[in-house]
Design a protein that fits this description.
The protein has 136 residues and is mainly β. Helix content is 7%, strand content 42%. The chain has a single domain, classed as Jelly Rolls (Sandwich), CATH 2.60.120.1140.
Length: 136
């Protein structure tokens, strides 16, 4: 069985969005992501949005690896959170995080540099597992 791989493509729109490509059964599925790389953007995240399209998400980028917490403040739909180390390997995922879980904060199993938020069910649908690589 092939391990799913996500490839980070070139950043467009002045660093505000990018595409991730998920290898699935020999073909690539595009996931369009917004980039959250400032403290303000990371704090706001996807809060207040009504929906997130099936192949969309938000990629959080931190300057250094750390144990950053994620919450569901002002969220309107459940998410999967995929944590990535500095080497772009998946080090864990929290599936089906519900809006009503706020004010609970969710932390990665070890320090991360990146986190990907996508619709709940995305991790399972795409067979995402710890150790899978995100390639540049």
């Amino acid at each position: 069985m092939k391990i799913p791989v996500i490839i980070l493509a070139g950043v467009v729109a002045a660093g505000l969005s990018a595409s991730l490509f998920l290898e699935k059964r020999g073909e690539c599925v595009e996931v369009k992501v917004e980039i959250a790389d400032t403290p303000e953007a990371r704090q706001l995240g996807l809060s207040g949005r009504e929906v997130l399209d099936e192949n969309e998400g938000m990629l959080f980028i931190h300057e250094t690896p750390g144990s950053y917490g994620y919450w569901m403040k002002d969220m309107n739909f459940p998410l999967d959170i995929v944590w990535l180390g500095e080497d772009m390997k998946i080090i864990g995922a929290m599936e089906n995080v519900l809006p009503e879980s706020y004010p609970e904060t969710f932390y990665p199993p070890q320090p991360v540099r990146y986190a990907l938020e996508v619709n709940a069910g995305w991790v399972k649908k795409n067979n995402i597992q710890t150790g899978n690589k995100i390639c540049r």
